[in-house]
Write a structure and sequence with these properties.
It is built from 19 helices and 20 strands. It is 35% helix and 17% strand. The strands form four sheets. A six-stranded parallel beta sheet has the order 2-1-3-4-6-5, sandwiched between helices. The longest helix has 23 residues.
Length: 549
């Protein structure tokens, strides 16, 4: 089947599934697959198509329909200046809160900046006037099309934030632009769209009690974490709470990340998601499984659907009472793996990353703040035992960068007026060394930075790049130079240069003692580790759960 035909049918199908009833089109060549898909939808009785010769007229026509119906109305154009002609109507729609959708055909990405005819940078052309935009290509896949169309239309209708306005769907279509002969025999295919509940509408999604359910909590606020935890515990469901979820207490399963790689996880049938669960690959695999129903509880106009097949997005869910046997299996597995993990780490000849993270998490009082740095520290904290009265946990999980972490922690302390402990890696500190500088006349927070220093990016030892073959033969030296990137920084000298106190700790007992002291002033606690054994440690962590079922 022609890839452009497949993409166009998917886009039009998802528009219809998301409630689009009218489509205004202007003729063109590059938008042929979308025009023909729209025609097929019209023949099937699913869509009303209106044709206008001029794109500017088409846009205002679509605007008028959307204005009186309150429903999203796309205007379809070919590529090039045709898209620019939509701007006046898009501006008007932005200022009047009307869900006008620019549906622009585009050339393949590889033709940009090549001098190809009718080819320009179309994504972003409407600037701040659109509420959301998305780029769709032939390799996007049905799941991606489903998610992106729903996301843009939800933003345009303001269903999640009560701020309706225009949206933009840019569809890159490659030649041939007409269907293959065999495609003509295909019937119109109805598709399903995710159910997006209005924000603050008081809508409560009630789940049936059948499927084996777990509650998964990614990074989020204390309010979101508390809501997720309360719901899971009242329903008697397994609670899988990430390190920055603010739900990692009470009945939360401390070793859930390891348990997700066991046969027990294969029995999960439904996941209720709170927050932003983007941390680990086992979580990503779970949320991408076609046999698992995903229900997303969202706080605003954006929601997390990393598997791109959420069945519903809602303000709140009524969780059904779980099977006590199901919960018991998870608790017993967590208890057993947790004990094995503690014994394994205690037997290590030197401090390990998970031990440092566990000590830090346990040391921060409930009235303080804890910032977990991205990359390896966050993942190590994901193995830490739960604590009875945890501090508010912060994590820059929007894009998960390792830059700006010291500055984030400093700002959090100033904003909250509370002491902060930050657990970060050495490369992260190198990125934000300037964050250590606070002028003598400035307010400074009480900030303790616990620096896990393994002289480079230890996380790459645990990823594909850490495969030994990338440090031998043809790739001799490639891993250390290109991924591990050792730096040899003297952090004692760095701390002194910026007026911070510095301690270097290598023993478990000394670490506990240092962390037990209240956070006062600006303090850098450096814990040197050896990253050479990191890949082996990860392998042994997985071995802990081989026999768990």
């Amino acid at each position: 089947m022609n890839p452009s035909t497949v993409l166009a049918r998917a886009v039009i199908g998802q528009l219809v599934a998301n409630g689009v009833e009218h489509l205004v089109v202007a003729p063109g060549s590059r938008n042929t697959p979308l025009l023909l898909a729209a025609h097929r939808a019209t023949v099937a009785g699913r869509l009303r198509v209106h044709v206008r010769h001029d794109e500017r007229v088409a846009a205002f026509t679509a605007y008028g329909i959307a204005r009186v119906t309150g429903r999203p109305v796309p205007v379809l154009t070919t590529s090039g200046t045709a898209v620019g002609n939509l701007l006046p109507a898009m501006m008007e729609a932005s200022h009047t809160g009307v869900p006008l959708i620019a549906l622009s055909a585009d050339r393949p990405n590889g033709m940009l900046d090549s001098g190809a005819n009718q080819t320009t940078h179309q994504l972003g052309i409407f600037g701040t006037f659109v509420r959301a935009e998305a780029n769709l290509e032939a390799d996007s896949g049905a799941r991606s099309v489903r998610h992106q169309v729903a996301r843009v239309l939800a933003a345009a209708t303001g269903i999640r934030n009560r701020q309706p306005g225009p949206g933009h769907l840019n569809v890159r279509l490659a030649e041939p632009l007409v269907p293959e002969a065999a495609d003509d025999d295909l019937d119109w295919l109805d598709v399903e769209a995710p159910t997006i509940a209005p924000l603050g509408a008081g809508m409560l999604t009630e789940l049936d009690p059948g499927p084996r359910t777990v509650v998964l909590v990614g990074s989020g606020t204390q309010a979101t974490g508390a809501r997720a935890r309360r719901g899971a515990e009242e329903a008697g469901l397994p609670l899988l709470a990430g390190p920055a979820s603010n739900a990692r207490t009470g009945e939360a399963l401390a070793t859930y990340r390891l348990l997700l790689e066991t046969p027990l996880a294969e029995r999960i049938q439904r996941v209720v998601v709170y927050g932003r669960p983007t941390l680990s690959r086992p979580v990503m695999r779970l949320l991408s499984r076609a046999d698992v129903e995903v229900i997303v509880v969202a706080d605003g106009s954006e929601w997390s659907d990393v598997g791109l097949h959420a069945a519903a997005v809602t303000d709140e869910v009524l969780l059904p009472a779980g099977d006590p046997a199901w919960l018991g299996q998870w608790r017993e597995a967590d208890r057993r793996v947790g004990a094995d993990l503690a014994a394994m780490l205690a037997a290590e000849p030197a401090l390990t990353g998970p031990e440092v993270a566990a000590a830090v998490v346990a040391s921060v009082p409930a009235e303080d703040l804890l910032l977990l740095g991205n990359s390896q520290p966050m993942r190590d904290a994901d193995l830490a035992p739960t604590v009875e009265a945890p501090a508010m946990v912060l994590g820059n999980r929007g894009l998960s960068g390792i830059d700006g972490l010291v500055s984030t922690a400093s700002g959090a302390g100033l904003g909250a007026g509370r002491p902060v402990t930050a657990l970060i890696g050495d490369v992260s500190l190198a990125h934000d060394a300037g964050g250590l500088l606070i002028g003598p006349g400035e307010n400074a927070p009480d900030l303790r930075v616990v620096l896990v220093n393994d002289d480079g990016g230890s996380i790459f030892h645990t990823l594909e790049q850490g495969d030994p073959r990338f440090n031998h033969g043809l790739y001799e030296g490639a891993f250390e130079r290109l991924f591990a990137t050792p730096h040899g920084i003297d952090f004692h000298a760095l701390a002194a240069a910026y007026g911070w106190s510095h301690r270097r700790i290598t023993a478990r007992k000394d670490l506990s003692a240092a962390l037990a002291a209240p956070v006062r002033g600006r303090e850098l606690i450096e814990v040197p580790l050896d990253r050479a054994d990191r890949r082996d440690l990860e392998d042994r962590l997985r071995e802990l759960v081989r026999s768990t079922d």
